[in-house]
Design brief:
alpha/beta, Dihydrofolate Reductase, subunit A, 4 helices, globular
């Protein structure tokens, strides 16, 4: 099995998005995302790609969509998460970056999780599927607070038990 890492930010009530955007403003988290994913493949659903509106620099974009005619110049497009992972076979750490439906499937396949836990509740329309943390071992945790008082933690996990 090829490796797969998931990177996601989630509020304490499981929100990961609202209207195809993030419901919070955490520049530090965006810097972490860039540092971790630069030089790697990033796998995402079509809606996630369209919410970004562009290819992210210094990364290979892999878009998963059910639309067989969907094309984006400069990106790889496929119809399943398994096919997307196969396209990343030469990458030591491809990242799944969203959205909710792909996270649901990817949680069964991932070997690492890079989570940003936002310690506040937010309204949203996209939610992180429940994660059974008995299958994961926490390997790192850093807690921070923004100047505006929003607390968040970076938490890394590795899979210790198959699903």
């Amino acid at each position: 099995m090829n490796p797969l890492s998931i990177i996601v930010a989630s509020s304490k009530n499981g929100v990961i998005g609202v209207n195809n955007s993030l419901p919070w403003h955490l520049p530090e988290d965006l810097k972490r995302f860039r540092a971790l994913t630069t030089g790697h493949h990033i796998i995402m659903g079509r809606k996630t790609y369209e919410s970004l509106g562009r290819l992210l620099p210094n990364r290979t974009t892999v878009i998963v969509t059910r639309n067989p005619d969907y094309q984006v110049a400069g990106a790889l497009v496929t119809n399943s998460l398994e096919a997307a992972i196969a396209l990343c076979r030469d990458d030591a750490e491809p990242f799944l970056i969203g959205g909710a439906e792909l996270y649901q499937h990817g949680l069964k396949l991932a070997t690492k999780l890079y989570m940003t836990e936002v310690h506040a509740a937010f309204d949203g329309d996209a939610f992180l599927p429940a994660i059974d943390l008995t299958h994961w071992q926490e390997t790192a945790r850093e807690t921070h607070t923004t100047a505006e008082g929003l607390a968040f933690s970076y938490v890394n996990y590795v899979r210790v038990m198959p699903v």
